[in-house]
């Protein structure tokens, strides 16, 4: 079955009494070249075990299944389970796991269901859970790479070079653990129903070790988040609000000792600057 043909999808979903849900970010791919390109970009091969989030009717799942050793796809919408039972029947290496990806123990899932394979992630993400799902995948789970289709502006921010105004605290958090790159754009017409925004594929490859060394990682992240708390203010003022136990003069001294201009904004700093700054601030505790 052509899982990207709008008429076939409509007929298939209609037969199963399925209705699209906006709240579950259900926009299915309707150009077969797109899921094929995303699956190729994930670099999945026979040694890989792929975690897919939100298989929908299975357009990307089928492409992944033809490349990977195994595909485990987590689907929240129970109404899609009979649809997937039909569309995934030709692929014995696909396992559908019903549930909410945000509630599952992904480390246990990878250890149990993808044992012996290199675990990676590939998905056309539901827009509404992009940040929590990436946070979950990046911070703790064992996945070597994450290749995801998401809102174009978000993908751009997450791949923005460190110290550029396009980035933010979450971009730097992600880049602390992963190397990120923006691969290609997917216009809204390639989805059914068509969303109001365009999309792009972001690829994240886990670093051997975090991008910078930190003596106190929790404090490093507190400083990083604090720098973006008052985005339109200077770094010093934003940090003074975020770290009320630090004298403002102490923060000014640390910023100067890092060789940063007095009026610099947080968005101009790279991870190495945050590592130095948090180490200097920590010295004065
Ligand atoms: N992979 C399909 C495709 O590319 O055509 C569908 C992608 S659609 C953007 C997102 C899918 O994620 C939907 O199937 C939706 O039901 C599912 N979904 C939404 N929230 C989810 C969650 N928290 N956990 C697992 N799946 C979820």
Explain the overall architecture:
The protein is α/β, with parallel strands linked by helices. 39% of the residues lie in helices and 18% in strands. It has helices at residues 6-15, 33-41, 59-65, 81-87, 106-113, 130-139, 152-159, 169-177, 217-227, 235-242, 248-257, 271-283, and strands at 28-29, 48-53, 70-75, 94-98, 118-124, 145-151, 178-186, 191-192, 199-206. The strands form two sheets. A seven-stranded mixed β-sheet has the order 4-3-2-5-6-9-7, with helices on both faces. The protein has a two-stranded antiparallel ribbon with strand order 1-8. Helix 3 (59-65) links the parallel strand 2 (48-53) and strand 3. The longest helix is centred in the C-terminal third of the chain and has 13 residues, at 271-283. S-adenosylmethionine binds at residues 24-29, 53-56, 59-60, 74-77, 80, 100-102, 124, 126, 129. S-adenosylmethionine (SAM) binds at residues 24-29, 53-56, 59-60, 74-77, 80, 100-102, 124, 126, 129.
Count of distinct strands? 9
Tell me about the largest β-sheet. Answer: 7 strands, mixed
So how many helices? 12
Oligomer: single chain
How far is the first residue's CA from the last residue's CA?
64 Å
**Radius of gyration (Å):** 21 Å
Give the fraction of residues assigned to helices: 25-40%
Structural class: alpha/beta
The percent range for strand residues is 15-25%
Can you write the helix and strand succession as a string?
HEHEHEHEHEHEHHEEEHHHH
As residue ranges, the low-confidence spans are none
Mean of residue pLDDT values:
95
The distinct ligands, each listed once, are: S-adenosylmethionine
